[in-house]
């Protein structure tokens, strides 16, 4: 009897794994998000079973649930499985960050959208002993970082709202934008001028400028981070142009337009 029980448990476990794989195959192979009903229909699962699987996957960050629409899309836990794509991205962007670092002698960063936050993929640090520098793998909010704003400016407004409803707009400094309408107005300015600014909104003595990277396969941006004593308000436009020029070359390298 014990052996038979083990056999039934094993068969159940295999079916459960197959069902999870079917759900993940559905969600990760499409850029669209899926409702619970759609997942249940396509995978031929009872809605209650599909919900349990999705809830477990969401708790492990393999899928994300949009708090507004209730739909599901692939989650940030798949980032390690996308390491090849990230390696290619970092390898192509790194020389440009190094060139900018050598020109401005400040820290330059590459960030991507990781779930509801920005994740630092590549960081080239300033030679100054006093500098602003995150670590690769660090994650930060979209509302108070230049990288986050540059990325959010390229997303649909409903998606931005969903992220902010889920994450909130926590105050990091007295200058942090904590009001949704004010943040959306700031994103409109980012789109108009082509770059984002974190003006002591994440660190009290830090200023960052970022531009989006387009046509590279995922939401991403590059930025400069520096103390306000060295990166002054008057210097923002100059470094923004240098970042924008680098972003154009990076896009050309990804799309083949340079040839």
From TrEMBL:
Q: Could you tell me one molecular function GO term of this UniProt entry?
A: DNA-binding transcription factor activity
**Which residue spans traverse the membrane?**
none
Q: Any idea which UniProt keywords this protein has?
A: DNA-binding, Transcription, Transcription regulation
* GO biological process, any: negative regulation of DNA-templated transcription
Report domain IclR-ED positions.
Answer: 70-256
Q: Which PROSITE patterns match?
A: HTH_ICLR, ICLR_ED
Q: Which residues form the HTH iclR-type domain?
A: 14-76
Q: Which Pfam families match?
A: HTH_IclR, IclR_C
Q: Which residues form a coiled coil?
A: none
Q: Which InterPro entries match?
A: GAF-like_dom_sf (IPR029016), HTH_MetabolicPath_Reg (IPR050707), Tscrpt_reg_IclR_C (IPR014757), Tscrpt_reg_IclR_N (IPR005471), WH-like_DNA-bd_sf (IPR036388), WH_DNA-bd_sf (IPR036390)
Protein name listed in UniProt: IclR family transcriptional regulator
Name the source organism: Phytoactinopolyspora halotolerans
């Amino acid at each position: 009897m014990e052996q038979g029980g083990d056999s039934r448990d094993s068969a159940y476990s295999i079916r459960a794994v197959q069902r999870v794989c079917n759900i993940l195959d559905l969600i990760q192979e499409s850029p669209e998000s899926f409702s619970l009903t759609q997942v249940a229909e396509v995978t031929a699962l009872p809605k209650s079973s599909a919900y349990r699987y999705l809830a477990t996957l969401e708790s492990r960050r393999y899928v994300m649930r949009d708090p507004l629409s209730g739909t599901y899309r692939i989650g940030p836990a798949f980032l390690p499985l996308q390491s090849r794509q990230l390696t290619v991205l970092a390898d192509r962007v790194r020389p440009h960050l190094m060139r900018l670092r050598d020109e401005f002698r400040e820290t330059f960063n590459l960030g991507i959208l990781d779930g509801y936050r920005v994740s630092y993929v590549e960081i080239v640090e300033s030679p100054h002993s006093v500098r602003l520098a995150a670590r690769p793998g660090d994650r930060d909010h979209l509302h108070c970082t230049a990288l986050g704003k540059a990325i959010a400016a390229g997303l649909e407004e409903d998606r931005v709202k969903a992220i902010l409803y889920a994450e909130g707009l926590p105050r990091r400094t007295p200058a942090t934008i904590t009001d949704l309408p004010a943040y959306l107005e700031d994103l409109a300015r980012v789109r108009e001028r082509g770059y984002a600014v974190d003006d002591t909104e994440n660190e009290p003595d830090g200023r960052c400028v970022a531009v989006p990277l387009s046509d590279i396969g995922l939401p991403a941006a590059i930025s400069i981070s520096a103390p306000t004593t060295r990166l002054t308000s008057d210097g923002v436009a100059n470094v923004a142009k240098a970042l924008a020029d680098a972003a154009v070359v990076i896009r050309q390298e990804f799309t083949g337009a340079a040839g």
